[in-house]
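Bench notes, afternoon.
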Amino acid sequence: MGRTIRGGLIQASVPQNVDPSGPIERLKQAMIEKHLGLIAQAAKERVQVLCLQELFYGPYFCAEQDKKWYGLTEKVPDGPTTKLMQERAKQHGMAIIAPVYEKEIEGVYYNTAAVIGPDGRYLGKYRKQHIPHCAPGFWEKFYFKPGNMGYPVFQTDFGTIGVYICYDRHFPEGARLLGLKGAEVVFNPSATVAGLSEYLWKLEQPAHAVANGYFIGAINRVGIEKPWNMGEFYGQSYFCTPRGKIISEGPRDKDAVVVSDLDLELITEVRQVWQFYRDRRPETYQDLTALLP
């Protein structure tokens, strides 16, 4: 019998009845309340490992450069949102990956995912490594310092998981490191809009899954966020197998909990056919770090 876990992904829009130009605490609370309902839905569907979208408790505020959004920062794990997710994880017996805006100290902020076990224990965090800063509307270097904690993996009761965040997915080096460290499922919470990179959405991450022999859960928010109107967040969150096959997918334009059963024994089956780890030649790759710009 396979070692099967039930994974879940949440994609969500900003509530239309909340003014994004109003108090940010009101917006934050509305997003948290929406996600609590979706987490409860995931629990009813017996999800064991659940990942929320990038910066889940707010809009994708990087569409502008405004210091007011620093007000969304929290400590991890000692901030209120991580504590709340620990309570819900324990309540539902569910591991949760909660992407938040982390404050290390005043003025030093990270795009971070807190990882929580099904008993409510805080297992650690991943800080987004690759920070974009480009038009239109991805002004992330204004808000985030690049991650400084490497590429950790987290042991849960349901398997070993890794986290990559949004723009990280364009960089295969970290995706490989997660596999080498034992990740069986890699989650990538994102905020990405239709246009230049949409055709890559179902290309890059299945390719990482194949190259590294693990499952991937890719998450994208939905809707057009005012007042920026920078484009449509096109949803289509999905799970794919180590063979690169998409096995479940969310809608383009609706809130959803995407659920899939992941047979982790498939990892062994695939790696015994495609021996990419055996056939690596790391002693020949020095130029990857030696040829710096």
